[in-house]
Amino acid sequence: MAAVDLLARQEQSENKLREKLTRKGYEAEEIDQAITRLVEMRYLNDADACARQFAFLYEESRSSVRQICVKLMQRGFESSLVKSCIPADTFERETAAALRVLSLKFKPSADRQKMMANLYRKGFDSSAIRAAVDRFCQEDISD
Question: Residue 34 contacts by C-beta under 8 Å, 6 or more apart in sequence?
Fold first, then answer.
């Protein structure tokens, strides 16, 4: 019942659910039985949950793909499972997300190195960083 309650509140990975149930004081045997039953009833499916959460974060956030991957691995999803969700070509999406970050934090006349360093710390790819900073600085010239 505790596992179902946790899943009702928020979609969980199997690893994160195990961790939470362990913290609540349940025995490993009880946790294994609960997890097995939840998988049988299709209440718990790491592959589907990871794909849904990745798609949501990829479409709705301004986080880099690296940040999204780290966040999902912190939520207990396996690295290989998370990496299988990454689309083949992420350049345009990464550039657009980097542009959103720049527009929230900087003015187009700001120091390019500071903009690039900020994006690098947020996990963006170097080619997407250069493209985003170039486009962002072009806005200042065109205005």
Answer: 2, 3, 21, 26
